[in-house]
Structures
1.
Amino acid sequence: MQSSDRFEGLQPYITGFVLALVLTVIPFGLVAAGLLLPFATLVIIAILAVVQVVVHLRYFLHVGQSTPRENLLTLAFAALLIFIMIGGSLWIMLDLNARMMS
Amino acid sequence: MTSLAASASAERPAAEVDVYEEKALGFWIYLMSDAIIFALLFATYVVMAPNHADGPTGKTLFSLGRTFGETMLLLCSSITFGFASVAIRLGKQRLALAWLAVTFVLGAGFVALEIGEFTGMYEQGAGPQRSGFLSAFFTLVGTHGLHVSTGLIWILILSLQVLAKGLTEPVTSRLFRLGLFWHFLDIVWIGIFSIVYLPGVL
C-alpha cells in the first residue's frame, strides 16, 4: 500500500488527481451533452469507472510493487468475491426477469 | 506500513514494528470486507433500479450539477488528505493539521450537499418507502454518506491527538489507516456516480 523505501512525495497524488479529474469530467460531460446513444454512453461510463478505480488504487492507496503480498492477495480475493456476487446476482435476476416475461 | 517499519527499525525493537504492520494488514482486510458490503448494495440497487412503482425516477430526482459538485468535493478532499500524508511523512505537524482541516471542510461540504439532496427528495414524497428503487438508493448512498460522516469524526479525533501528542509513531500509524479509509470512500463514490447518478440522469 505505502510506497515503502523510496518516498515519492507529492508527485503520485498530483498525477492521480489530474487523471481522476479527466476520468470524471468525460463521463459527466457525455451525459450532459447527450451526444451518444444511451447504450454507448453507459459502456464508456463503465470503462472509465474501472480505469478510475485503478488510478485511485495506484496513486492514492499506493498499491504497487512495494505492496506486501498479503495485502495484494486479500485485494485480489475481494475482487473475485465482488465479481462473483455482482455478476451472479445480475445474471440470476436478469435471467429470471426474461423467463417471467415469456 | 513498511515506511514506518523502515524508519522505526533503527531505534525500535522489531516486535513493535510488527504490531504496526499487523494493524495495517488488519485494517486493509476490514476495507476489503467493507468493499464487499458495498458490492452487495450495488448489486441490490441495479436489480431494484427499474422498480419505480409509478413513483419518481432518477431523471426527475437527480441533479447532474449537484452530483458533479459532490464528486469534486470528495476528489479534492482525497488529494488534500494526500498532502496531509506527505506533511506527516516529513514531520511537518502544523502543515499536516492545516491539510487535515481542509480535508474536513471538503468532506463536510460533501455531507451537507448529500443531506440537502436527501431532505429535498423526502419533501417531494420520494423517501425510501416510496418504491423499491428509492429503498435501494437510500440504502446504498446513505451507507456511503454514513461512512464519510464517520471519517469526518475520525479526522477530528486524530487532529486532536496530533495537537495533544504530536506526530508520535502510534498517532502516525493511526493517521495512515485513516488515509486508507478516506481514499477507499472516494473509490466507492466512483461506483455510485457511475452506477446510480449518471445512468439515472441518462
2.
Amino acid sequence: MRRAISILLTVVTVIFTGCSNSRQIETASIIKNVSVDRRGGQVVYTFYRLTSAQKPWGIDVPADSFEQACALAGEKFIPNLSLAKLELLMLSEDVYEQVMQDDVDYISTQASFSPIAYVTICDDGAIDRIKETNRTQTLIEEQLILIKKNNPSVNINYLSIFNNFAREGEESFTVPYISSEKELKVSEFKIDREKMKKFSK
Amino acid sequence: MQTEVKFSSKRFLLALLLCACSVILLQNNNLSPNASFSFNAICIASGLAICFLFFLPSLILKKRTDSDVPTLARRYTPKLRIPVAIFYSLYFVYGALYFLLPYIDMFHTKYFPGVTPCLITLLMLICCAYAACKGVNVISRFGIFLFLFALLTNILMFGGSLSELDLGHYGFEFRGDVNSFVQNTLYFVTPSFIAVIFACCSGVTRNFRFRQPVFTLIFTGLKYAAVIFFVRFALGDYAGRQTYPAFVLSRVAHFGPFAGIESFYLALATMSVFMIISLFLCCISRGACTEGNRKCVIIFTVIIFALYVTATYINSVKEILSNPVLLLLLTFAAAVMLPAAYIFVGRKSNAKGN
Amino acid sequence: MNYSINEIKLDLQAQFDNSADLSVRVFTLKSVLRIQAAVITMEGLVDKEQLSQSVLNPLLSFDYGTKDSAAVSDTVFSSVMASSDVIKLSCADEIVTYITSGFAVLFVDGADELYAVGVQGYSFRGVSEPESEVVQRGSREGFTEPLRVNMSMIRRRMKTPDLKFEQMTVGTDSKTQLMLCYLQSQVSLDLLNKLKNRLNDCKLETVLASGYLSEYLEDKGSGSLFSGVGISERPDTVCGKLTEGRIAVIVDGTPAVMIVPHLFVEEFQSVDDYSNRTYYAAFIRLMKYLSFFVSVFLPGLYVALAQFHPEYFPTWLLINTSESLAKTPFPVTVEVLAITVVYEIMKEAGLRIPKSLGHAVSIVGALVIGDSAVNAGIISASTLMVVATAAICGYVTSPLYPPIMMLRLFFIVVGGFTGLWGITLATAVVLIGMCAKTSLGVPYLSSLSPFSLRRMRDVFIRADWKRLSRHTIRVQKFPETEVRDADRG
C-alpha cells in the first residue's frame, strides 16, 4: 500500500512538473539568424525562421532594440518564438553604431542565447542576399570561420565582442564585415569605441 | 544487507570529492570580480587548507577508533546520543537546503522557467530519499558512475572552451585585496561539509589511509582552479554578467558545429546535488536511527521540503538558509568540535579500561 | 518392514484412483516356495523392451530354488538384474516419485527391499542448438527437458570428480526433481547453504519451469527489474560458470538451467567472445554495451529533446525532424509510446503465430506500420527510425530484453514529461537500484561497482587467455560480498 502511494505521488509529480513547459519541436518557431537594417528611417529587425525551403522565411519587426524586437515578435508575429538556435546576427553598417552595443549587452543577459553565435556588420546588399536564399548564411559562416583562422584578432562572436566592449584601455577592436559587391566577401572592420556609448559594467 | 558491509574508504572519498566539486558548479557569482586568477588560486589553496583542518579531528578519530561520531556517541555517551543526533540532523537539513536552493534556482531560471520550483524540489527529494534508504555504500557505488560522467563532462567543457581562451588580454597578474581574500577564501571553505559527512559515516569504511582525504582536497582544488581559469580566460568579462558562470562555460564550449554541452552540465549538476542530498539524508538516518531507516529518511525529507517551501515564500528564511557564515560555523561545530570531543572521550575511556 | 504386493497394489490404486496409466505386473518366480514379485510402472514412461530384457526376462528365467523372500530379493539385486541403474528405495513412499520419473519399481513379496530400475523410455526432444543463445564458434548442443540428459552433458565436459550433483525435490504436487551442480573445491559452502535454504522455502504446488523458482532465489529487498538469477541453455556456458564458484540449478522438464550468483556484466558475455580473437571480442562487447544504452535511452532522449530541448538537435536534423513531426496529429511522446507498444504486439504475435502465417504477418507489419502509416501521416519517419533502432539494439543482448523494454518505456514517459533533467534523475535512481541489488549476497554490478581493475579484463574487453588464466575468479572473493568463503575443514 505504502509503495503504491509513493509511486502514485512520484507519477503525479512527474506529470505536473513538466507538461506546462514543453516547447515542442514541431510547433516551435526556431530562429536561425536575425538581420538588422534601416528602412524608411526606422530600424527593422528581420527574424529568419529555420526551414528546409530554399527561400528563407523572414518576418520584419520594427523596433528600437533587439530586446524590444524579441518582445514584439513573440507577442504579435511569431508564436512559440525560440532564439536558442540563433547562429548569426547581421547588422547593417548604417545601424550598428546605434544598436550594436545595446543588442550585444542584451544578448549577454539571456540564458537561451548561445554566446558563440556570430555577429557581423554588413552592407545592404548582403542583407538583401540573405533574404533570397538559405545558402547565404552558410556562405557567410564559412567566411567568418576562415577570417578567424587567418586573423585570430578578429572578433566574430557575441562573447568576444562583448568582452571587447567591456575592456578598458583599447581604442578599437576588429569585427568582420560582409560586403556583396560581386560576391559575398568578408573583411575586417574596425570599431572605434569612442563612436559608441561608453559601456558601463 | 549491503548497509552492513564495509566498503573501501577510497571509494567513499571519491564520492566526497564529487560532492566537493559540485560546489563550483553551483557557484552564483560568489567570488569577488576584482580578483585575478592567481589571487583566486591562492584563495583556493588557503580555503582548502582550512578544509583539511576541519577534516583532521575526524581523520584522527577514524585512525584511532576505526569508527565515526554517531557510533562513538552510542558507545561512550549513550545519554548524549540524542542531542548529538539532533545536532547532526539539524546540520544536514541546513546543508541540504543550502545546496538545494541555488540548484533549484539555477535550474528554474535556465531550464524550466514555467514550472513551480516546489514541484521540481519535491521530485528531487523523492529520488534522494529513495537513494538514502539504500545506504552510504550504495551511494558510493553510484559515485563511480558519476565520476566517469563528471570526467567526460569536464573534458567536454574544458576541451570545448580551449578555442575561446584569450591569454593575451587576461593576464596572470596578482590583483586583489583583503576583503576579496576573505570573501573568496570563505567561499572555498564551503567544501568542508564533506568533513562532516566523513565524521558521520567513516565507520563503515575500511582500508583508510591518511593521504586519501589529502588527495580528495587536492583534486577538488585542481577542479576549482580549472573552472576559474576557464571562466576567467575563456569567458572574460562575459562571465561577470552571468549568474552561474560554470553554466555559461558549458554553453560556450563547442567542438566545431557541435555544441549543447550545457546538457552535460545540467546532468552533472543534477546528479551531484542528488548525491549530496542523498548522503545528507543517509547521515541523518545514521545518526538519528539506523542507516537506511525508511521512516527516518521520509520524515526528514518532508522537513527539508517544508523548509524549502517556506524559504521560497519568506525571503528572510531564504537568507538564513543561504548564509555561508552560518554554514561555516555549523560545519566547524560538526566537523571539528564534536569529533575532537570524542577523541578525548575515547582516550579517557581507553585509559579507564587500562 | 516386509512389503506385501497386495497392500502396495491397493495403496497405489487408491492414490492414483485407478488411473489408467498405472501398471502393476505381478508374477510368480521360479522357486519352490512359489514366491511372487511385482513390477510397478507408469505407462508411456518406460521402455518396454528394455524392461523386458533387463528386468523381466532375467527375473523370470532364474531358478531361485528354496530361497525365502529375503534371500530371493538379495539374489535379484546382486545376481539377476541386468540393469546398471538400480536404486534401493528407503520406504514405500518413494515408489510414486520413482515410477512417475520413468523407473520401474520391483520388489519381492514378503521382502523388505524395494528396487527402482532405470528403464526410462519416455519421449523427449533431442539435443539441438538452443535458439535463444546462438553462437558461431561454440558447441551446437543445448540442454533438453530430461534432467539426466542435462546432467550427462555437463559431466561430459567436466571430467573431474570435483563436479558434484545434489538432488532436491520441489513442488508439493509436481514433486519436480532438480539438481544442484557445483565444483566442490570452488563453491562457497555459505552460498550453497543459502541456495538450499531458499529452495526449501519454496512452497509451490507445481514447478513446471525454472522460472517459477528464480524469484525464490532472488535476494530480498533488491530491485526487481533485473534478474539476479542467470539462465542458460548451453552446457558450455554452465560449465564455464561452475569454475567461478557458481552453482547451477537444473530443473527437470525445462532446458533452461539457472545459474547463481548472476551479475550484470555477464549479460554481455558469450561463448563466442572466448573463441574469437581478443580484438574482435572486445569490439563485439563494446558494441553490446553501446546497443544496450541506445536501446534504453534513445527513444527517451529523442522525446525529451523534441519536447523540451529542440535546440540540441543539429540544424540539419532539426529541420527534417520538425517537418516530419509537424505532419502527424499526435504529440511526439504519444507517437513513440504507440509505436513501441505496436512493435511489442507484433513481436508477441510473431512468437505465437504458426510458421506458415509468419511471412504474411511480417509483410503486413512492414508495410502497414513501416510504410503506410508514415505515408498516411499517422506517424513520422524519424520516430519510426528511432523506435526501430532501439528495438533492434535491444536484441543484441536478448537476455536483458525485459528490463530494457521496461526501462525504455519508463524513460519515454519521463522524457516526455520532464525532459533531459527527468531522464538524468531517473537514470540516477535506476543506477542506485542496480548498485543496491545483490545476487545471493554478491553485488549485482560487481567488477563495475564495486570496481575491480583486475576483473575488468573480462568486462569491456576480453583479455587474452594467458592473462585470464593467471587469476581464477571466484564469486565469493568479489569485494563486498556477503558470502563467506567458509573453510571446508
